[in-house]
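Good morning N.,

You mentioned wanting to compare the apo and holo forms, so I went ahead and generated the holo version with phosphoenolpyruvate. This is what I fed in:
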Amino acid sequence: MRQVMVAGNWKMNGSSDSVKELMAGINAGMGSVTKAEVVVCPPAVYIARVSDAADGTAIKVGSQNICDQDKGAFTGELSGEMLKDVGCEYAIIGHSERRALYAETDDLVAKRFAAARRNGIKPLFCIGETLAEREAGVTNDVCARQIDAVIALEGVEALADGVIAYEPVWAIGTGKVATPEQAQEVHAFIRAKIANLSADVAQGLRILYGGSMNPGNAAELIGQPDIDGGLIGGASLKAEDFLAICMAAE
Ligand code: PEP
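and this is what came out, ligand included:
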């Protein structure tokens, strides 16, 4: 039985005050969340204080990226050891904004995945197609290529240490959510693809959906057989909406 998961990607939003308020708001509603694993991924500068606020609660903390290297002259990067030190249990890896705006390749994403694993951080590994790729009918090929980069470097068993988030790029931050059927079709493909290499890994692997998930559409999406939760952007910035999605996941 796969535990449902709801993760919030706060992206580059927030301030000391708003982060404090958001954490207090989420924490106040956590008593009703009994089944879902809840993770928040703040901007790096707020991770330590969010970890403090999460201390003693069921809320887990993640980073929005992780360096592929472990130490040294990598200006602007954050190592797995540092992220662990400030309380990260998860790291988002391969988000489409990193791939598109900062030219992160499948190869680099795979190396970041490897760095997370060797530092005991669970990769929250994002994959997904652009609108042009969907329209060209290559959605499955794109997802397979992105997953294969990790498998080539780390082996299929490595996927068991993390979570995959299927995030169609055209649905991220656009309000254009994939239909439950569209999302389920890709999730089922991902699971079947992994099952070809390891039935056990495929069966245990959580595959989240991300892309304009909100309190109104979460239950139907997460109700699909191969959708094990959500990675939430915009709606994770309001405690009320984020908690409503956690409740929908329950
Ligand atoms: C995301 O950035 O991972 C995301 C899913 O964003 P949004 O929910 O805003 O579409």
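Residues 13 and 43 are 7 Å apart (CA to CA).

Happy to go through it together on a call whenever suits you.

Best,
F.
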